[in-house]
Amino acid sequence: MDSRTKRPLTLAQLDALTRRALGVGLSSATELTGGFANAVWRLALLDGREVVMKLAPPPELEQLRYERNLLRTEATVYGLAAQAGIPVPELLRAGFDDPVLGGDYLVLSALDGVPWSRAKPAEADRRALRRELGGHLARLHAITGDVYGYPYAGLTGSTWREAFLVMTDAILADAGRYATPLPRPVSEIAAAIEAGASALEEVVTPCLVHFDLGSGNVFLTRDETPRIQAIIDHERAFWGDPLADFVVPTIFGELEESDPIVAGYRDAGGVVEFTGPARTRMVLYRLYLALMILIENGPRRYPEKEYAPLRDRCAADVLEALGKLSATP
After folding, report:
1. Which of 8, 68, 79, 109 matches a 20 to 30 Å C-alpha distance to 234?
2. Domain final residue pick, 109, 135, 152
3. CATH number for 128
């Protein structure tokens, strides 16, 4: 989707950046338009390789608080995930504060698979893939840190409750900064989050959470029986509750215990509970995701016709989450 945060570069500028990053020029470049925040290009290099380059928005452009230094978060996750045996593209180069570009970039190995969102696997394959995704999630969540939240954005806490309240306070402050219309007043939303926050105290270890595992960020092999080739776009990752990573794969729905993603997660050693406090946490994370999608339109300024259906779904999700939180004893 078009977004004001996507940095435009000419072919000559991309060639110069590629030469600084990899020591080789490019023969062609194709912009990949599926993402929302960063500009992404697939580059054919003069030495025959193909790579993907991600460019952070210009540093002078306002973004949401959690979006500060997104590519630095992503670079960290690529390193940790690869060490844990999670399929990810190879990080070839991470450039921070590039003096010519005036910002950050990543260069990754190109994938030859297809995004799950475009693959349309058969139902039996879809269930097998969700089970496989659950296993990868369990391995990701086995990576632990020493602080909760978004360290590169300065939104952290010594407990998960503290960090999550800092994170939600920041996104609600962004709503005020960009005059984002929300379905209920900010004060009401903040009060509902605070009322449900005691459920967050069950989380006692900061685990690595992707928090953007939609079908567009999972690449599949082109085999007759597809497998997961790689998980991409880790820029929204934070340290927190593993349960939050089940929100995007079940977006606008509910996680059911019969979902193959749960079986795959448990097979790989992960723990998924469906207790009252766990369900409250899931509601909080759904609310947080819906707020993120609504409020990010402030700096990004999506095309109205394309964005309106997503905006309306997220507004409905906010109202549904508030209703559930108000009904929680």
Report:
1. 8
2. 109
3. 3.90.1200.10
Give me the domain span that covers residue 38: 11-109
What is the torsional sign of CA 157, 163, 169, 175? positive
CATH number for the domain spanning 28: value is 3.30.200.20
What is the per-residue burial (b if ≥16 Cβ within 10 Å, else e) of 91-109?
A: bebbbeeeeebebbbbbbe
CA distance 80 to 68: 20
Measured between its terminal Cα atoms, the distance across the chain in Å is 41
Instruction: Taking each helix axis as running N to C, give the angle between helix 276-295 and helix 160-177, from 0 to 180 degrees, rounded to the nearest 10.
Output: 30
Contact call for residues 240 and 207 (beta carbons, < 8 A): yes
- Return the pLDDT at 297: 86
CA angle 156, 157, 163 (to 5 degrees): 75
The proportion of the chain whose per-residue pLDDT surpasses 70, expressed as a percent, equals: 97
pLDDT tens-place string over residues 176-198: 999 999 999 999 999 999 999 99
CB of 300 closer than 8 Å to CB of 4: yes
Which regions of the chain are under pLDDT 50?
1
Nearest to 30 by CA among 21, 17, 40, 22: 40
Q: What angle do CA 298, 280, 218 make, to 5 degrees?
A: 60
The pLDDT of residue 300 is 76
